[in-house]
C-alpha cells in the first residue's frame, strides 16, 4: 500500500507467497482501510478485479473468495466512507492518480518479481541461474525459490 500525506509518500509492503496477485491487491486495500478507519478514503487501484469486487460489496451475491471476505470485513468495519477509483496501469498520461499508481507499482516491483519467479518455477521447474536471469532477481533469491520447491526436492 502506498499513500501520500502532505508532500511525503509512505509505503507498506506485504509479501505472502501463498497469496495470489489479486489477493495481495485486496490486502493492500484492507491495510489502507485499517490505517485510515475514521476518515474518508480514496483508494486508487490498477486492479480491475479489486475495483469491481469493492463495488460489488454494496449488492447481494458477492463472491465468497478469500479476497472478497477480506474486503468485506475491512469495508464494513470502517467508520469513514470509501471511494474506489480504477486507473489503467502504465498510462503514459500522468495525472494525480496515475502518479500514485506509478509509486505503488515501483514499490511492488521487487515483490511481484519474486512472486512471478515462484510461479514460473512452479510451471517449468527451471534452475536457479536461469530463473535469476529470466526474472531479474538475485541468485540468492532464485536459489531460495528452487530450494523451497517440493517437486524439485524429490
Structure description:
The structure is a single chain. With 154 residues, the protein is mostly helical. The protein has a domain at 2-86. The chain has helices spanning 21-35, 48-56, 66-76, 96-124, 128-135, 139-147; strands at residues 2-5, 8-11, 41-45, 82-86. Strands 1-2 form a two-stranded antiparallel ribbon. A two-stranded parallel ribbon has the order 3-4. Helix 1 runs parallel beside helix 3 (66-76), helix 4 runs antiparallel to helix 5 (128-135) and helix 5 (128-135) crosses helix 6 (139-147). The N and C termini lie far apart (37 Å). This is POL1 protein. One of its GO terms (molecular function) is endonuclease activity. Keywords: Endonuclease, Hydrolase, Metal-binding, Nuclease, Nucleotidyltransferase, RNA-directed DNA polymerase, Transferase, Zinc, Zinc-finger. It comes from Chaetops frenatus (Rufous rock-jumper).
Structure characteristics:
single chain; 154 residues; mainly alpha; two-stranded antiparallel ribbon; two-stranded parallel ribbon; 4 strands; globular; endonuclease activity; transferase; nuclease; RNaseH-like_sf; zinc-finger
Q: Quick recap of the structure?
A:
The protein has helices at 21-35, 48-56, 66-76, 96-124, 128-135, 139-147; strands at residues 2-5, 8-11, 41-45, 82-86.
Quickly count the helices.
6
Q: Helical percent range?
A: 40-55%
Strand order of the largest sheet: 1-2
For the sheet with most strands, the description reads: 2 strands, antiparallel
Enumerate the spans where pLDDT stays under 50 for 5 or more consecutive residues.
none
For the termini, the CA-CA separation is 37 Å
Strand-and-helix sequence, N→C?
EEHEHHEHHH
Strand percentage lies at 5-15%
Helical/strand content category: mainly alpha
Note the overall shape.
globular
Computed CA radius of gyration, to the nearest angstrom: 18 Å
* Nearest-integer average pLDDT: 85
How many β strands by DSSP? 4
Organism: Chaetops frenatus (Rufous rock-jumper)
Protein name: POL1 protein
InterPro entries: Integrase-like_N, Integrase_Zn-bd_dom_N, RNaseH-like_sf, RNaseH_sf
Domain Integrase-type: 112-153
